[in-house]
């Protein structure tokens, strides 16, 4: 049967709604991955070695060495699927202390920049964050999931409006789905009732041998 049983439909819809509301209003994403979309370094700090070893590090995590970043004033573009991606993860709104560094063979590693890296930095619509430091580097990070960590909590400003917009679209889609589901259930009930009536009529027809069939069907009054 193509039409789902009413009881099954209800069981299916309830968790769907729970999921939508949960995602919308708690705004909690367990794991938002941050990847490096592009980087350009404007200088190297090490003058003994020809090629620098540049890496990204968040406090308490492991180094991510960029094997390709070897020249200054060269633009490196990444698709996010490189073996060393993602750079890090955000599991809450909490910031991390992260930075770009260059390995140094003699003294401690050189610092391009070190800063408080926060999920709320990713404010551009597609979850982008550009960090630029003059004469040091220009890097673009991507974290689309970071928008859902921070977006719903802050419903003011342009970013908030966007989050609101998404919420409205999701809610409306949910409503349309619900109406469709109710429609299917009602149609199914109606169809079952109609079928039962037809069965009854057919049943009666078997016994009343043609005599009063027209009366039973109510056709007599029409003709
Ligand atoms: C860091 O690297 C070590 C050794 O490669 C590994 O055992 C550990 O799980 C890594 N830690 C994280 C947070 O990835
Ligand atoms: C980020 O989370 C993913 C999935 O849980 C995991 O595979 C990856 O190693 C994590 N990366 C870092 C840098 O912690
Ligand atoms: C940094 O890189 C981004 C992405 O390529 C670019 O849009 C932006 O203009 C750059 N900024 C500077 C100051 O070079």
From TrEMBL:
Keywords: Membrane, Transmembrane, Transmembrane helix. The keyword Cell membrane does not apply. Pfam families: DUF7953. InterPro entries: DUF7953. Signal peptide: none annotated. Residues 32-144 form the DUF7953 domain. The chain crosses the membrane at residues 163-187. PANTHER family: EXPRESSED PROTEIN. This is DUF7953 domain-containing protein. It comes from Stylosanthes scabra.
